[in-house]
Amino acid sequence: MSYILSKSLGYLRLVRPANLLTAVADILAGIAISGFLYRTYTSYLDLLPVACLCLATIGLYGGGVVFNDVFDASLDKTERPERPIPSGLVSKTQAVVLGSYLFLVGILAAFTVSRVSGFIALSIMASALVYDKWGKHTGWGPVNMGLCRGLNLLLGISLVVPVLQHYTWIAAIPVLYIAAVTAISRGEVYGGNIRTLRLAAVCYALVYGTIAVLAVMNGRLLSAAPFILLFMIMTNAPLIKAMKDPSGPNIGKAVKGGILALVAMNAAFAAAFTSLPYALTILVLLPLSLLLAKAFAVT
User: Fold this and answer.
1) What is each CA distance from 8 to 3, 102, 103, in whole angstroms?
2) pLDDT digits (tens, 9 = 90+) for 192-247
3) Which 3 state secondary structure label does DSSP give 187?
4) What contacts 87, CB < 8 A, 6 or more positions away?
5) Which pTM was predicted?
6) CA distance from start to end of the chain
7) Closest Cα partner for 223 from 174, 283, 163?
8) What domains can be seen in the chain, in order of their start residue?
C-alpha cells in the first residue's frame, strides 16, 4: 500500500498540481473573452465544451511538465536530485508513458470541441515539446515558453471562432508575461541577473497596463481594478525582493509568485470582459493553487 501511495505521489509531483490550476484559469479567461457565457443555455450539456477544454489544458500542461522532467533527468541528478525521476521514485519510461497519455487526453478532449480547438491543442503540445527538448537552452526559450501560455488562452477563446479571429493578438499578453517569468527562472539555481529582473519588471508593467486598457475599452475598469492590483502585488512583492538580493532562493520565490499570479491575471482578464461573479469564480482557484504549492513544487 505504501508503495502505491509513494508512486502516486511521485506522479502527482511530476504534473505539478498547483500549476495545473493556473492552466485551467487560462481557459476560463479565454472563455470570458470569447463571450460564450452570454449565450442562452437549455441544459448543463451546453457547457460540456467548457469542461472538455479544461480537461484538454490539464492534459496538455501535465504532459508538458512531465516531458520537461524527462528531458532534464540527467541534469536534475545534480541540480534537483529530489525530483521523482532522479530520485528513482518514477522511472523515465513510466514518465514518458504518463506524459504521452496526458498529451493524448488533452488533444482528444480539444478535438471534441472543434477542429480549431484541436489544432490549437496540437500546437501547444508541439511548442511544449520544443521548449522541453531545445528551447530552454536557447535565447528564444522564454518566448517559446510564453507561446505555450498564449496558445492556451486562445484555446479557451476558440469556443467562439469569430471572436478568436478578432482577438488572436491578445495571446501576446501571456506570451510577454511568461517570457519574463521564464527569463527570471534561469537564475533559480545559481542566482539571477539584475538587468533581467528589471526587464521583467518592464514586461510586467506592460501586461498590467494592457489589461487595464482593455477594461477601460469595455467599461469595466472598476470591476477589473482589484484583480489587477492583486496581480501586481503577487508579482512585484517577490520581484522587488529578488532585485535587492538576486540569490537563487529569492529568484525561485519570484518565479513561483509569477506562476501562481497567473490566476489573478486571468481573473483580471475575466473582469475586463465579463461579470464580476465569473471573475471571482476564477479567483477561487488561487487559494487552491497556493495550498497545493505548499505540498508540491511549482518550478
Assistant:
1) 8, 15, 19
2) 788 999 999 999 999 999 999 999 999 999 999 999 999 999 999 999 999 999 99
3) coil
4) 81
5) 0.94
6) 29
7) 283
8) 13-295 (1.10.357.140)
